[in-house]
Amino acid sequence: MAYDDLRGFLSTLEKEGQLLRITEEVLPEPDLAAAANAAGRIGEGAPALWFDNVKGFTDARIALNVHGSWANHALALGLPKHTPVKEQVEEFARRWDAFPVAPERREDAPWRENTQEGDDVDLFSVLPLFRLNDGDGGFYLDKAAVVSRDPDDPEHFGKQNVGTYRLQVIGRNRLAIQPVPVHDIALHLRTAEERGEDLPIAITLGNDPVMAIVAGMPMGYDQSEYEMAGALRGAPAPIATAPLTGFDVPWGSEVVIEGVIESRKRQIEGPFGEFTGHYSGGRRMPVVRIDRVSYRTNPVFESLYLGMPWTECDYLVGPNTCVPLLKQLRAEFPEVQAVNAMYTHGLLAVISTRKRYGGFAKAVAMRAMTTPHGLGYITTVIVVDEDVDPFDLPQVMWAMSSKVNPADDVVVLPNLSVVELAPAAQPAGLTSKMIIDATTPVHPDTRGNFSTPTKDLPEAKDWAAKLQRLLSEARG
Ligand SMILES: Cc1cc2nc3c(=O)[nH]c(=O)nc-3n(C[C@H](O)[C@H](O)[C@H](O)COP(=O)(O)O)c2cc1C
């Protein structure tokens, strides 16, 4: 099932019992964010939340926690809601192989219904803005898909980028944006600023659920997020032409904001409670001038709570980080079996691999650190044997505890790049990185006293089924 817009997905969530309408009147702060924060604390079937009775707003429709459980993530991919997380990752990886699927251009985008332009632009009259964490420095649009083009190659469809970059509302027509240097929009902005030019952008809010997934996905620079959305949806992604910039934007967005990142201007942005479970602090960031807003009648404002994991952000960027890493590694090392990079947006990754020869596992780890995601995030890589499941943390701990001789198996590399937000970096943006090789040494690496590993007895599987049957009979 492919959803063309957020509304279609919300109605499926409701039918599946995965959307909760809160009808009582609530305060915009702290109730909206506190409810979304709480959704991350009530277990893996948590619903999306819908609010339309918010004190102080006459006309608000707010959706929160839309991807915020494995059940909702499964439904976003058109899978049954009880699909186990590992199966979701495997299915995601299978669909990746259909990339690229050309998008379908449509004319009648619903966000053309209403427009504000020039001096009339006033975000406060379109969106019911509210703060998330109690130390945040302002209102944020934190689940937007932002479209920009390479100023040196504007007609290249693949180099047109769609990425999620959080935006602080700093005026009725002004935003501050945080382009992390390893991300594609930072390359676009750098090129524009080197030419002394503004960078046009289109900011799309309230998107179909697969668009939100691909916008936060670390793909190659010239790979199109729309063509990946088509692969994941199993149907071409519907796109439309944004009226001011001419950029390709999702057909079904609730709101499309167009303008420019003003060349070489910076303004204090933040603090903002981050995916690392820490605040960002206040930092100088580029500034957006909004020239046009297009929006559906009665727009739904979709926002995402993030902070101390797990939150919606962790579900949203879990599989979409694991799968690109798996595919990018396998392209060069077919021995790689699986990647789990679901903790704190993949600041840590666990990789299972077969080994060609001694030292191979460390090479795989170093390659992971130079993928698009690895450059800016992966700080620790744990490599395990091919028969250890990276998603089974007790197995990973077994490998770490039984296979690692720290003097040779732990490698620390100094002064590598990481997002400034990584709290342990020193200075911000630079860190040492660690490889923990928890694989069994193979020739010519003869270290250790590894005898034949014990395996579960062949009969144990049948016995497990029998024990479960007997137990449920005994319990009635
Ligand atoms: C909710 C959310 C907020 C994000 N905020 C930012 C941000 O402010 N700046 C940034 O550079 N990346 C941010 N990211 C991460 C990028 O969207 C993600 O790493 C993506 O792969 C970047 O793609 P790109 O390399 O094509 O630009 C955010 C991701 C999510 C899911």
UniProtKB/TrEMBL annotation:
<feature type="domain" description="3-octaprenyl-4-hydroxybenzoate carboxy-lyase-like N-terminal">
    <location>
        <begin position="10"/>
        <end position="90"/>
    </location>
</feature>
<comment type="similarity">
    <text>Belongs to the UbiD family. YclC subfamily.</text>
</comment>
<dbReference type="InterPro" id="IPR053417">
    <property type="entry name" value="PAD_UbiD-like"/>
</dbReference>
<keyword id="KW-0058">Aromatic hydrocarbons catabolism</keyword>
<keyword id="KW-0464">Manganese</keyword>
<keyword id="KW-0285">Flavoprotein</keyword>
<dbReference type="InterPro" id="IPR002830">
    <property type="entry name" value="UbiD"/>
</dbReference>
<feature type="domain" description="3-octaprenyl-4-hydroxybenzoate carboxy-lyase-like Rift-related">
    <location>
        <begin position="106"/>
        <end position="309"/>
    </location>
</feature>
<protein>
    <recommendedName>
        <fullName>Phenolic acid decarboxylase</fullName>
        <ecNumber>4.1.1.-</ecNumber>
    </recommendedName>
</protein>
<feature type="binding site">
    <location>
        <position position="183"/>
    </location>
    <ligand>
        <name>Mn(2+)</name>
    </ligand>
</feature>
<feature type="binding site">
    <location>
        <begin position="161"/>
        <end position="166"/>
    </location>
    <ligand>
        <name>prenylated FMN</name>
    </ligand>
</feature>
<keyword id="KW-0210">Decarboxylase</keyword>
<feature type="binding site">
    <location>
        <position position="161"/>
    </location>
    <ligand>
        <name>Mn(2+)</name>
    </ligand>
</feature>
<keyword id="KW-0479">Metal-binding</keyword>
<dbReference type="InterPro" id="IPR032902">
    <property type="entry name" value="BsdC"/>
</dbReference>
<keyword id="KW-0216">Detoxification</keyword>
<dbReference type="Pfam" id="PF20696">
    <property type="entry name" value="UbiD_C"/>
</dbReference>
<dbReference type="InterPro" id="IPR049383">
    <property type="entry name" value="UbiD-like_N"/>
</dbReference>
<dbReference type="Pfam" id="PF01977">
    <property type="entry name" value="UbiD"/>
</dbReference>
<feature type="active site" description="Proton donor">
    <location>
        <position position="274"/>
    </location>
</feature>
<dbReference type="InterPro" id="IPR049381">
    <property type="entry name" value="UbiD-like_C"/>
</dbReference>
<keyword id="KW-0288">FMN</keyword>
<dbReference type="Pfam" id="PF20695">
    <property type="entry name" value="UbiD_N"/>
</dbReference>
<feature type="domain" description="3-octaprenyl-4-hydroxybenzoate carboxy-lyase-like C-terminal">
    <location>
        <begin position="315"/>
        <end position="438"/>
    </location>
</feature>
<dbReference type="InterPro" id="IPR048304">
    <property type="entry name" value="UbiD_Rift_dom"/>
</dbReference>
<feature type="binding site">
    <location>
        <position position="225"/>
    </location>
    <ligand>
        <name>Mn(2+)</name>
    </ligand>
</feature>
<keyword id="KW-0456">Lyase</keyword>
<comment type="function">
    <text>Involved in the non-oxidative decarboxylation and detoxification of phenolic derivatives.</text>
</comment>
